[in-house]
Amino acid sequence: MDLRTKNKRLGEILREMDEVIVAFSAGIDSTFVLARALEELGDKVLAVTAASETFPERELNEAIELAQKVGARHEVIQIKEMENPNFVANNPDRCYHCKTGLYSSLTQLAKERQIPWILDGANMDDLGDYRPGRRAAKEYEIRSVLQEADLYKEELRQLAREMGLPNWDKPSFACLSSRIPYGNIITMEKVEQLDRGEEALRKMGFRQLRIRHHDTIARIEVPREEFALVLQMADQITEVLKGEGFAYVTLDLQGYRSGSMNETLLKVL
Ligand code: NMN
């Protein structure tokens, strides 16, 4: 299927739904779903963003601004994943527990408002990674319309660009817990360390990046093309991350790759 046909198919899928809630994080995937749903269903679309302790305020503000820009009705609900011991334990099924909390809140809201469908932004690329949250999506009958229309990340970025969405090339972010190895508990201290550390690196000019939190070691992932910039900024990066409490600051020679914390799981399987 070519891109135009896929986008047309997405439109058909959306039109059949009548009224929807879009689980909207301000990432490009859910922004694109929201914008296309608005095109097809107009005011029958409600964007809902889940604010939580581990969702940086910067991202929440971005969601509020973006929803306004695309002209969506928008509500923010509070999720308290840090109160869920199954989330804090950070076992490999962490995302399942987080998404269960999110989807049960969204399902309750949908019931109250009599809205038949909840949409998320999962795309075709997500099928290639370990995603325990998908089980929760299935259990709550969340519709992943980008997958239904066979859309991959690069494709939806292209369509988002053509639509003039301001965040069409926004780097993938994911929840900050994705930086903490499985089995190491999630604490607000670690989440805040990572948030401040990554923000400092963004200010130095890095876009797509992760700081993986291995107790006393910070393992930086950036695309290999940006290794030169890491060396150039080595002193500043070291100072910032040591200031955040890391004893050692390292660069991962494989470079940035989403899902790198799952590599240890694959060895066990
Ligand atoms: O890009 P990074 O920081 O590696 O984060 C991606 C990881 O975050 C995934 O490999 C997965 O472990 C987790 N994640 C899970 C879901 C899900 O279960 N639905 C969604 C997004 C991210």
Condensed summary:
This protein is α/β, with parallel strands linked by helices and 269 residues long. It has helices at residues 3-15, 28-41, 57-70, 85-88, 94-113, 133-139, 145-148, 153-163, 188-203, 227-232, 234-243, 263-268; strands spanning 20-23, 45-52, 73-79, 117-119, 210-214, 217-221, 248-251.
Question: How would you characterize the overall build of this protein?
Answer:
By secondary structure, the protein is of the alpha/beta class. The chain is 46% helix and 13% strand. The chain is built from 12 helices and 7 strands. The protein has helices spanning 3-15, 28-41, 57-70, 85-88, 94-113, 133-139, 145-148, 153-163, 188-203, 227-232, 234-243, 263-268, and strands spanning 20-23, 45-52, 73-79, 117-119, 210-214, 217-221, 248-251. The strands form 2 sheets. It has a 4-stranded parallel beta sheet with strand order 3-2-1-4, with helices on both faces. A 3-stranded mixed beta sheet has the order 5-6-7, with helices on one face. The two termini are 34 Å apart. The model has no long low-confidence stretch (mean pLDDT 96). The structure holds beta-nicotinamide ribose monophosphate. Beta-nicotinamide ribose monophosphate binds at residues 95, 99, 129-134, 172, 174, 178, 210, 258-262. Beta-nicotinamide ribose monophosphate is lined by residues 95, 99, 129-134, 172, 174, 178, 210, 258-262.
